[in-house]
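Field log, afternoon session.

UNIT: design team B
ACTIVITY: writing a sequence onto a fixed backbone
BACKBONE:
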């Protein structure tokens, strides 16, 4: 077979279709109106609430099987299950279960693949934070993810947010690169009621474009791990598969296994929406996956799948991991009929079809284009993001959109607009959280999942909803 021509060298500025991109980025002459300041403040966080934990050195060796107390089981059910049931029986379409609260859009690191930070954007105020939590609470939401940028840039502020939200019954998730998660910060957040730390790591040690490495944060991580059993939180490694960290992902996965931690994998992707000048690394980026890297990425994904099947704790299901292989090709924009499954013209379209047989969520169009099937995205219905200024959007990739969905004083989510938008945008989106939300909006699946956990006394580690 003749070798295909070389693929385009430069990545596209955005992955979504042009028409929907114009709607989301250029449809309004006025940006969304920030939430008006009303002078609300957060209460001072009481610390320590559990003074006995300050002198507790924690566990050096993780237990073989973690024991969840009735109190912690109830906290999780109150965060996830009860709001789900309410969302199924109450009228209307806006019933958020999960919310991303962007305390910051600044970051202390510069990961070259990341567009989700801008150091010119002011952080969230206490006024917006408190009213956001109250607004979410009034709408039934009980899962709150503190996001950035880096949400721990102002640790005292983050402590206040966690304390206030936990007192209102929220199950709280903190996404962090760990550099600022000093032992005293861990103790304050754990004491306040954090449920999960999503510890973002891409490499074992520093490498070009990937500053989120284990070596610089190892002391912080070790303290976090020791104290998790006393405070009752969980830890995930959140890893982004790039072309220059394939061996690091294996090493970090084994480290997580050794320390009884869960893992969550993502495939590095170019922006869904076009970014402004704050994103400086679109070109000549050592983290982006090229067609010539596809074989090596496939090998890594297959290795992760085998570890998943052997019992490693993973948020990703086997099916979602399989679909990562298609997503890297989907993101490239290459015609696979022309370039083949490995991007070099050596495989036929029959090979492409064979590869896709196990990926039930992927469709190949007659022109060779790959995209996700309709997966029941719940953005703007059961998931919402709140920007630092109190404006809202349906999901994480839509943070830079100028489309006006309102703010915490008056949201403008409309079922028709969301449905029309998702006909296109969900074809390109690989969000783990939103895919899990979409998958669970099937009562039979939820009943089955709850029953399976109930039989085990709601014990055990993290697994995907589909497993």
């Amino acid at each position: 077979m003749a070798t295909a021509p070389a693929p385009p060298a430069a990545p596209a500025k955005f992955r979504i279709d042009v028409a929907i991109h114009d709607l989301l980025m250029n449809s309004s002459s006025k940006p969304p109106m920030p939430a008006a300041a009303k002078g609300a403040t957060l209460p001072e966080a009481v610390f320590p609430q559990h003074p006995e934990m300050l002198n507790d050195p924690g566990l050096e060796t993780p237990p073989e099987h973690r024991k969840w107390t009735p109190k912690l089981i109830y906290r999780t059910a109150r965060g996830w299950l009860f709001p789900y049931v309410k969302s199924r029986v109450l009228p209307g379409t806006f019933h958020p279960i999960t919310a991303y609260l962007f305390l910051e859009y600044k970051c202390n690191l510069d990961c070259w693949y990341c567009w989700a930070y801008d150091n010119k954007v002011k952080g969230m105020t206490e006024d917006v934070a408190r009213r956001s939590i109250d607004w979410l609470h009034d709408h039934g939401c009980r899962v709150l993810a503190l996001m950035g940028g880096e949400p721990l840039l102002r640790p005292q502020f983050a402590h206040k947010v966690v304390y206030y939200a936990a007192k209102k019954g929220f199950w709280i998730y903190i996404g962090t690169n760990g550099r600022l998660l000093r032992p005293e910060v861990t103790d304050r957040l754990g004491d306040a009621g954090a449920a999960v730390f999503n510890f973002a790591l891409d490499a074992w040690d520093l490498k070009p474009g990937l500053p989120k490495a284990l070596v610089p944060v190892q002391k912080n991580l070790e303290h976090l791990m020791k104290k998790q059993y006393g405070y009752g939180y969980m830890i995930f490694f959140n890893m982004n598969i790039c072309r220059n960290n394939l061996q690091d992902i294996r090493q970090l996965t084994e480290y997580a296994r050794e320390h009884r931690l869960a893992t969550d994998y993502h495939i590095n992707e170019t922006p869904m929406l076009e970014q402004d000048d704050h994103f400086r690394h679109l070109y000549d980026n050592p983290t982006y996956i090229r067609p010539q890297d596809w074989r090596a990425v496939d090998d890594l994904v297959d290795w992760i799948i085998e570890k998943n099947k052997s019992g490693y704790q993973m948020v990703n299901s086997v099916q979602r991991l399989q679909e990562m292989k298609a997503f890297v090709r989907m993101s490239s924009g290459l015609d696979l009929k022309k370039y083949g499954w490995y991007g070099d013209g050596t495989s036929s379209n029959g090979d492409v079809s064979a590869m896709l047989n196990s990926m039930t969520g992927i469709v190949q169009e007659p022109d060779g284009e790959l995209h996700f099937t309709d997966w029941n995205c719940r953005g703007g219905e059961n998931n919402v993001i709140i920007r630092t200024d109190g404006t809202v959007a349906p999901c994480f990739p839509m943070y830079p959109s100028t489309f006006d969905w309102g703010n915490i004083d008056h949201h403008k989510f409309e079922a028709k607009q969301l449905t029309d938008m998702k006909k296109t945008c969900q074809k390109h989106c690989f969000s783990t959280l939103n895919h899990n939300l979409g998958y669970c909006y099937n009562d039979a699946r939820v009943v089955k999942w709850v029953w399976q956990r109930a039989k085990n006394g709601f014990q055990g580690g993290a697994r995907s909803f589909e497993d």
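LOG NOTE: The first helix runs from residue 18 to 26.
NEXT ACTIVITY: expression trials, pending approval
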